[in-house]
Write a structure and sequence with these properties.
The protein is α+β, with helices and mostly antiparallel strands. The chain is 40% helix and 19% strand.
């Protein structure tokens, strides 16, 4: 556990400096970058060969999610019931955050975002203080 905490801390430093990290997910390994860093997301897209496909993001919590997306009604009920978990919700980006999220994560002013059941993904986002592309 001590090694894992150290590795997460090191990975967060890489993310803060615009890098891309590899982390274990529920099913395989994933790549992550700071969703608010356009160059980092571009780097991740080049590595994955994703082209111009819009990327989903992971927030550490519903509280963080609310800082970036407008959520209410049924979407809020679903989030409270199924997060953390595999549910991704597409919602409008908050107007005050639109310029801070990489354009590769936004389509028609909407963002696909979730709170992952993967503890490492959530911890990377929590320590970074921002959502990650994963």
């Amino acid at each position: 556990m001590k090694d894992q905490k150290k590795q997460i801390k090191e990975a967060v430093e890489v993310l803060r400096n615009g890098g891309v990290v590899v982390f274990p997910t529920e099913t395989s390994y994933g790549l992550a970058a700071d969703a608010t860093d356009r160059r980092a997301v571009e780097r991740l897209m080049r590595i994955k060969g994703r082209g111009s496909k819009t990327l989903p993001v992971i927030a550490s919590s519903l509280v963080m999610f609310k800082r970036y997306a407008q959520i209410e009604g049924v979407a809020l009920k679903l989030a409270r019931k199924f997060w953390p978990g595999p549910l991704t919700i597409v919602l409008p980006v908050r107007d005050d955050k639109l310029k801070f999220v990489s354009p590769f994560c936004v389509k028609d002013k909407h963002i696909a975002i979730r709170v992952s059941s993967n503890e490492i993904a959530r911890e990377l986002s929590r320590q970074l203080g921002k959502p990650i592309v994963a």
